[in-house]
Amino acid sequence: QDHVCSLPKVPFRGAPCSDAAGSQVPYAAIMKQVNSSLSGVLWDEVQKAPFYEYKDSVGQFHQVWFDDPHSISLKAAYVKSRGLRGIGMWNGNSLDYSREAEQQTQAMWQALTP
């Protein structure tokens, strides 16, 4: 189906379908790969998150989900609107801290405080 990517069932902490079947990719690699992907950036309205799709060198289909400044700002605004005590971020050291991505990385951190 279009835009449906199933994770293999890999038991992990009691969850039959989890991120244990996937892998983490540095943000710089995501930003480079999205431009040459099959789909370009797609948006999931339920998750409030961007993703893209690509095929690897052997023709296997993959889907990559990530956050960007827009998706993080929506999540941070939700936390604030509900009076919750904070927000967390997974692995900030996976951001691209190179000079070329300085503005985008700064925007990611600023998005945490709506």
From TrEMBL:
InterPro entries, per database record: Chitinase_insertion_sf, GH, GH18_Domain-Containing, Glyco_hydro18_cat
GO BP annotations, alphabetical order: chitin catabolic process; oligosaccharide catabolic process
GO MF terms held by the record: chitinase activity
Alphabetical UniProt keywords: Glycosidase, Hydrolase
UniProt domain GH18: residue ranges: 1-114
Gene Ontology CC entries for this record: extracellular space
The keyword Oxidoreductase is assigned to this record: no
Pfam entry (one): Glyco_hydro_18
Superkingdom assignment: Eukaryota
Name of protein: DIAC acetylchitobiase
Biological source species: Promerops cafer
